[in-house]
Amino acid sequence: MGQYHHDIDDILADEELVPAVFLEAVNGVGLFESNDTNRVEPRSKVELPFWLASELHLRHVTSVTIPPCFGKKTQEEIGADGAHVDLRSRCSYFYELGCKIVQLINEKTIGSLLLVAFQTRYKEVLIKAHTSASALAPKYLSLLTKEETKLYEAAKSSTEAFKTWRMGGPRFQKASVLGRKRKPVRE
Amino acid sequence: MYGRKASQLLKEFVSGEPGQLTGFNNDVFAQVIEECDGNILHLQALLRKMQEEGSNNQTNKNADHFGALVHHLSLVRNKRCLMAYVYNRAEVIQNLGWTIKHADLPAAVKEKLSISENEYFGKHSSNLQSYMLDLNLDLAVDMVPPKDPYIKVRVLEEIGEVLLSDQIANLAMHSILFLKRIDAESFISQGKMEELTS
Amino acid sequence: MSGQSDPRGSAFSAAELEFLAEDEMIEIVPNLRIKPLSLICGDFGPFQPQIPTQVPIWLAVALKKRGKCTIRPPDWMSVEKLTQVLEAERDSASSFEALPFHYVEISRLLFDHARDDVPEVYMVRSLIEDIKDVRFHKIGTGLEKLSSRTYAMKLNLSAMEVNVIRPFVTGSLETFYELTAPEIIQESQREEYRRPQTADRGPRRELRR
Amino acid sequence: MESEGTDDYETLISTTDADLLKRSWRNEKAAPEILQFQSSLVQRSREQIQLMEETVEELIANDEDPLTVSLYQMDIDRTLFLLRSYLRTRLQKIEKFMFHIQKAEDLWARLSRQEQKFAKQSIEDLKTHLEQSVLSKLPDRYQSHLKQSVISEEADMGIFFYLNCTYIQICMFANNLISMFS
C-alpha cells in the first residue's frame, strides 16, 4: 500500500464539498440528508464531497463546477491584501483542493491564484513563526489554511526547540504520550 | 452523506496532539462498517434489478447502474478512511514502542488501544527486542547525545531498592541521586524520575 | 524526547548539533600531567602542566569541569574580531560573514563551562547574541525572496541556523513544487516561475488524475 | 544545505572509524530514503568499542586515576551513541517506509540481514493488525490489502463495457460484474 495513500490531509482534502450538476439520473442513493434511498433526477444541483464528485465527473454522471472559494471575489481579495484573507473559513484545504480541481476540470486560472496566494502569504507565516513572541494573536492563526498552519508549526517548533536548547533545560524528558510533562523544578 | 462518519474518525485523530493517543473510537468505527454493509446491500440489489429488467428500459438501467457505482465509491472511500485511521494510529504505537515496552505500559494508556492495537504493540515490542538480541545491542537507550556519564535525578515515585549497572541504589521518593545516564533513562521516560540541571 | 530529532522536522536536534560541535578541536593549557590518551576518536596528549595542546571540545570541557585545565577561546571569539563580523553582517544585506560552522554551539559550550577563560566574556557574549539576531533576521528576509524564482539560497549558514529554518524551507519548497507542477499552472505562466530543482523531493506525491 | 566546507576538511585529517561512523550517521539522518548499510564500518566500530571497554576494565583493575578512566569512558559513550543512533535511525526509516522498501529491490538490498528480518516481521505484524481491525470486517469483495484503485482498469472496463455493450452480453456480463467491483 503506498505511503501517500494513508496521508490523512489528502483524504480530508477529498472530503471538501464541491458544487456538481447531475447529467444522469441515479437510482437507489441517499445523497440528501433524507435517508430514504430514492432517485436523483438529472439537472439537480448538489454539493458533493470531492472524492465522490470527481469520480462521477470522470464518468460524465455529474459535472463539477468551480467552488466559490476559487472564484472572482477571492482572486480580488488575494490581489489586494493576500496575507490577511481568511482562507480557512472558505476552504481549509485551499491549496490541495485547488490542485485537485485544476486537474479535474482543467481550469488553469485557479493554478495561478493558488501560486500567488501562497507566495504572498507564506512570507507572513515565516515572519510570525520565527520572530514574534509565542503568544501570537490567535486571530491571525485563524486565517491560515491547513497547509499554512503546518508550515507555521514546523517553523514554530524548530525555533522553540532552539530556545529550549539554548536555555539548557533537562535533556531527558518523560515519554510525551504519558500525558503532561511534570514541571521540572528549576534548581 | 456517505463517508461523513469515516472522515469524522480522521478529523478526531488529527485534532489530538501529535504523538498523543486518543481512545480508539469503537462506536464511530462500527457505524462506518455498518454503512459499508448498507452500501453492499444496495449495490447488489441494484445489480439484481438490472439483471431482471433486461433491456426494455435502458435509461432506467443506467440509473440503477450509477446508483451501484455510488455505493461502490462510498465503500472504497470508507475502506480508505478506516485503513488510514488504523495505519496512522499504528505509527504512533511504533514511535511509542521505542520509549516503552508494551509490558511496562500503564493501564490508562492500554485502555486507549483497541484489542488488535494492544496485540500489535506487543508484537512490535518483541520484534524490536529480537532485533536488539540479534545485534546484542540495546537501542532503546542513548536517545540523547551523551554528556557526563552521570546525571543528577530526583525520584518522583517510590521505586525502592534497585540493582543498577554500577551500584545498588535505594530509589526512595523525593531522593536526589547521581545515577548512570543509561540506568536513569528508562525511569525518566516512564515519568518515575526527572533530570535536574544544576 | 527533547534531545531526539523529530523525523519530519529538522534532521538534527540542537543537542545532536552540539554533539557534533564537541568534536571540533580547541587549545587547552593543562595544569597537571596525564599520560597520552589513545581514544577511538584519535590520540591526544601527553598532557604536561602549562604546555598548550589541541583536544576536542568535549575533552576540554571534561577537564575544565574537573579544574584540570584552562581553555584558550578560538581566535574568532575575540571582541575585536566579533565587532568586525557584526559590522560586516549589518552592512552587507545578504552575504554572511564566514563564522565557523558550529559557532553557535561552540560559543554556548564555552560560556557554560569556561566563562572565566574568555576575556571580556560579557562583551563577547552580547556581540555573539547581536550577530545571531542580525543573521536570523537576514535569514528571514532571505527566505522572503525565496519566491519560486530564486530557489538556490547562497547563504553560508551555520549548522544551527540551517537546522532551525530547514523544516520551514523544505515545507515551502514542497508547496512551490506542487503549485508550479505542469498540470497545475499554464505553460505561459510557468516560465516566470522556474520549477525548484534544488528541493530534495524524495518520492513525489503523485496527484491522482 | 550543509556547506561543502566541512566535508573537505574532514577528509584532510586522518579519518578514524569514529569520523566515518559520524559521517554515516549524519548522512543517514539527513537522507529521506534508506542508504546502504555500512556493515564493515559497524563491525569495526563495535570491535573498537569492545577493545576500549576491556582497556577501561584494565585501567580500573590497575586503579588508574579516575580522571583518565572517565575520559576513556566518555570516548566510548560518544562512539556508542553514534552507533546506536545510526542503527535506530535506520530502523525507524524502515518502519516508516516498510511497504515501499519491500517492493523496491534496490532499497531492500541496502538493508542488513537483521534489518531485513525486522522489516519482514514488521510488515507481517502490521498486515495482520490491519486485517483484524479493518479488512476482515468489510464485505468480502473489498478485503484485499491492495490499495483500492478506484479507477482500476478492470472495474472501469466492466462499467464502460457494460454501458456500451449490446443487450446480449448484459446477462453474461452482469454476474461477473459484481466480482469486478472489488
Structure commentary:
With 187 residues, chain A is mainly α. Helix content of chain A is 50%, strand content 11%. Chain A contains eight helices and five strands, in the order H-E-E-E-E-H-E-H-H-H-H-H-H. Chain A has helices at residues 8-13, 50-58, 72-81, 87-90, 94-105, 108-131, 138-143, 146-167; strands spanning 17-22, 26-29, 38-40, 45-49, 62-64. In chain A, helix 5 packs antiparallel against helix 6 (108-131) and helix 6 packs parallel to helix 8 (146-167). Chain B has helices spanning 4-15, 26-53, 58-99, 107-110, 115-135, 181-189; strands spanning 150-155, 160-163, 168-171, 176-180, 193-195. In chain B, the strands form two sheets. A three-stranded antiparallel sheet of chain B has the order 4-1-5, covered by helices on one side. Chain B folds into two domains: 4-135, Methane Monooxygenase Hydroxylase, Chain G, domain 1 (Up-down Bundle), CATH 1.20.58; 150-195, Ribosomal Protein L9, domain 1 (3-Layer(aba) Sandwich). With 198 residues, chain B is mostly helical. Chain B is 59% helix and 11% strand. In chain C, 42% of the residues are buried. Chains in contact: A-B, A-C, A-D, B-C, B-D, C-D. Chains C and D meet through helix 1, helix 2 and helix 6 of C and helix 2, helix 3 and helix 4 of D.
Features:
heterotetramer, A: 187 residues, mainly alpha, Methane Monooxygenase Hydroxylase, Chain G, domain 1, 2 domains, 3-stranded antiparallel β-sheet, two-stranded antiparallel ribbon, 5 strands, 11% strand, disordered C terminus, C: 209 residues, 7 helices, disordered N terminus
Instruction: Report mean pLDDT of chain D, rounded to a whole number.
Output: 78
Low-confidence stretches of chain D: 1-6, 149-182
Shape type of chain D: elongated
CATH class group of the largest domain in chain D: Mainly Alpha
How are the strands of the biggest sheet of chain B laid out side by side? Answer: 4-1-5
| Count, helices of chain D | 9
Largest sheet of chain D: none
Largest interchain contact: B-D, 53 and 50 residues
Q: Give the CATH level 1 class of the largest domain in chain B.
A: Mainly Alpha
Radius of gyration of chain D: 27 Å
Helix-residue proportion of chain D: over 70%
Main sheet characteristics of chain B:
3 strands, antiparallel
What is the CATH-assigned architecture of the largest domain in chain D? Up-down Bundle
Q: Helix/strand/pairing class of chain D, anyone?
A: mainly alpha
